[in-house]
Amino acid sequence: MDGSSAPFVYLIQEAGLRTLAAPRRYLKVLRPITLSRGDKLMSLYPSDYFKVTYSISFDHPLLRHQSHTLRIDENAFVDDIAPARTFGSCTRSNCCASRASRWAGPSRTPSC
Q: Which of 33, 61, 63, 92 could form a disulfide with 44 if both were Cys (CB 3.0 to 4.6 A apart)?
């Protein structure tokens, strides 16, 4: 597993889809809604389709501020979202490896 959801998408595609008898329930956004906590912010706006815009900011010279907008449908999820993986810094991964070795014991210490 590479950290993406692509293997799960593949398995779902191989198994196939079927229509359910129960009607689908939707949430309709009628007016703008904004939630914030500290330096984090999320807003919902009325729309006729599902679109996501996200921004991230890192104090790192290779990343800095990035923003992207994507209209979400089945194809966009399969092609653009499912293959995406998370990332972390070496400092952070070393911290996690250290914690994992304390939890799992020396015989299972992750190698870099």
A: 33
Number of compact structural domains in the chain: 1
> Would you call 40 helix, strand, or coil by DSSP?
strand
Give the CATH number of the domain where residue 82 resides: 3.30.1700.10
Share in percent of the chain as helix, strand, coil (round to 5)? 30, 20, 45
The partner residues of 34 in beta bridges, in order of sequence, read: 43
Alpha-carbon distance of 11 to 61, in angstroms, equals 38
Give the domain range for residue 40. Answer: 6-108
Per-residue pLDDT reduced to its tens digit, 68-98: 899 998 888 899 888 888 776 666 556 666 6
pTM of whole model > 0.85?
Answer: no
